[in-house]
Design brief:
The complex is a heterodimer of chains A (about 400) and B (about 325). By secondary structure, chain A is α/β, with parallel strands linked by helices. Chain A folds into 2 domains: about 5-250, Thiamin diphosphate (ThDP)-binding fold, Pyr/PP domains (Rossmann fold), CATH 3.40.50; about 255-385, Rossmann fold (3-Layer(aba) Sandwich). Helix content of chain A is about 40%, strand content about 20%. In chain A, the strands form 3 sheets. A 7-stranded mixed beta sheet of chain A has the order 3-2-4-5-7-6-13, with helices on both faces. Chain A has a 6-stranded mixed beta sheet with strand order 10-12-11-14-15-16, sandwiched between helices. In chain A, helix 2 (about 40-50) links the parallel strand 2 and strand 3. The longest helix of chain A is centred in the middle third of the chain and has 30 residues, at about 220-250. In chain A, about 55% of the residues are buried. With about 325 residues, chain B is α/β, with parallel strands linked by helices. Chain B has a single domain (about 10-315), classed as Rossmann fold (3-Layer(aba) Sandwich), CATH 3.40.50. In chain B, about 35% of the residues lie in helices and about 15% in strands. Chain B has 11 helices and 10 strands. In chain B, strand 9 (about 245-250) and strand 10 (about 255) form a beta hairpin. The longest helix of chain B is centred in the C-terminal third of the chain and has 29 residues, at about 285-315. Chain B starts with about 25 loop residues before the first helix and ends in a 5-residue tail after the last helix. Classes of the chains: A alpha/beta (about 400), B alpha/beta (about 325). At the A-B interface, strand 3, helix 3, helix 5 and strand 9 of A face strand 1, strand 2, helix 3 and helix 5 of B. Bound molecules: thiamine diphosphate.
Amino acid sequence: MSLQPLRVAALQGDEAVAEAVRQSGVDVVAAYPITPQTIIVEKLAEYAAKGNLGGEFVSVESEHSALSACVGASLTGARVFTATSSQGLAYMHEMLYNVSGMRLPVVMAVANRALSAPLVLNADHSDMMGSRDSGWIQVYAENVEEMYDRTIQLFKLCEDPRVLLPAALNFEGFILSHDKERVRLLDDEPVRRFLERPRPRHRLDPADPFTFGAMATPETYYEFRMQQSEAMETALHVFDEVERGFEGISGRRYGAVDAYNTDDADVVMVINGSAAGTMRAAARGLNAAGENVGVLSIKLFRPFPLEQVVSHLSRARAVVAMDRSMSPGAPSGPVSEDVKAALQATKPVMSVVYGIGGRDLSTEDGKKIFGMAKEGSLSGSRSVMYGVKV
Amino acid sequence: MYEQVKGLKELPADEPLSPGHRLCPGCGASIVVRQVLLAAPKDAIVANATGCLEVSTAIYPYSAWNRPWAHSAFENAAAVASGIDAGLKALSRRGEAREHPIIVFGGDGGTYDIGMQALSGALERGHRFLYVCYDNEAYMNTGIQRSGGTPRGAWTTTTQVGPAMAGKQGSKKDLLSIVVSHRVPYAATASISHWRDLMTKVRKALSKDGPTFLHVLAPCTRGWRYDPEKTIRMARLAVETRFFPLYEVEGGVYRVTFPVTSPKPVEEYLKPQGRYSHLFHPENASELETIRKEVDDNYARIEKLSQLTGQLYGQKTA
Ligand SMILES: Cc1ncc(C[n+]2csc(CCOP(=O)(O)OP(=O)(O)O)c2C)c(N)n1
């Protein structure tokens, strides 16, 4: 198929998300500002003021109300978007479960930031990991163009009648939200056609009055949750379809995981988010010097691409999982726990915590971590806290 | 424009809230819902906060609601309504005919307390909806705990009666003043005992472009401790003793819609309710006196506000 010529722009991550939201023909945006997500909100408000947004921009008084307004708007059949970060995501926590339980296809951008106290503005994944089990599809982007692409893809995925689940697009605060990168923008029209859909059958409509948000009992609740869980499984396959469809309009495809030299490697690092690129650069450097190491980036964290992870790690001689969040008192962080569960003790999984509260991770750090894995200083079932000052 | 409600015969035969729901016999809240929705156009969309009304009318796989109905959480009904309003506006702008009245029902807990922020935000943003607070003066769903709407002296399970404390300390929050301070186009109190007044207020509210508010007293047989057949009588006594004055605020102008020229003694309202029984013990005489004074002061305040705002903003057009 012939592709539209692309417009190349230099955009900050937040700007790229806002542009994708506009092109996606969003009907309602309800959001509340928080660093480092603010640019998204401001940009969308600017579009609204210029009359370019197409939809309604609701500047709410809190994140709890942001997601609550998304519930109401989504129930009318509208396409809905919000964005938040850190404290804001924590403030939404109750509503996260409500949105997924009501099966509303809300798309949310999360500029990942560590949680207070102490207050810090910089990135780690503990905001989203704290809401890991809320029934949202969770994607981690590695760069600005991917943020742009994923925003469009997630509307398609969430609104698919086989899925009907909300999704969170995660990207590290400042590292990606404020980073200015080259983005190949699509034209409005192919995006519009890609996301075209009939209005959902179940919505607030006086001609066909439905009850939304009924109470359940122990006789019925479990089955509601089971259906949610099954929709997550289905989302794994629909994700692949959506990626293929998006490739048709953009020529770009990422996969649920990205594997670099994972076959037969001596050490494979499993990681999510922007540091995957750092670890790949480190691995390339080491491989050029005669080593044999790889990186597996988990882009789709929920639903967890279990079979792909297992198959990519099946021949690795050593596996290290890297967490950009902490779970005090637990053996290791959430990425490590999932990788351990996936491999079912077929091989040991070493675990590293890094980048907490915005602590930088350089390519040199990446090389050091590979080195630590080889020399055995990462073994043991507890995470090693890389880069902490002692 | 709106039409005044004159007689029962002009009301639709259709029942917006089906019988068979699990609210208590004599529940004031269900009467509020019926009166409000019978006065409203049939194409209304309803949002409901968590509370007695919500848990008793939609227990999966059943629903008593013959209107499109949405419940999400306890504190967010006004925010959900904001989203419904925004959604309908956006879809209408895209050429779909999606203009419907939005009516919100929230209890006093979901309105005076935990839902206050969401309500304030939604009123300030100017969404188009009618918010109805059915005020049974406590958290009834969780077992009669006090709220900001619980009146002075009332017993609840969290404002108990003993030698150290005689029911709720402090007065009931002045909800309507808070709402009015958002400069909404229309806000009013109403009582299920005065149904023509209530229904006319619903129609008036829905004729406005912007957020409107109705504060309706909803007697609760379990929480107030009176017999279920007396619900309407309780509501009427609250009005006739001036305990719950009926008034409206339209474009800043106050107006008493049911003037009570010779009020009944407030005891006539308090005495039949078990939640106030301790007030009639000699040691609590001063508390009873405080209540009497608050009731008089409040009525005088509203009358005075009617005069002053009438002069300030001009005579209102009814
Ligand atoms: C965030 C949150 N806190 C507490 C509750 C528990 N809860 C459910 S209903 C309710 C009280 C409702 O009181 P009110 O709004 O007065 O309505 P009523 O039950 O009296 O009709 C409470 C405390 C909840 N559902 N959500």
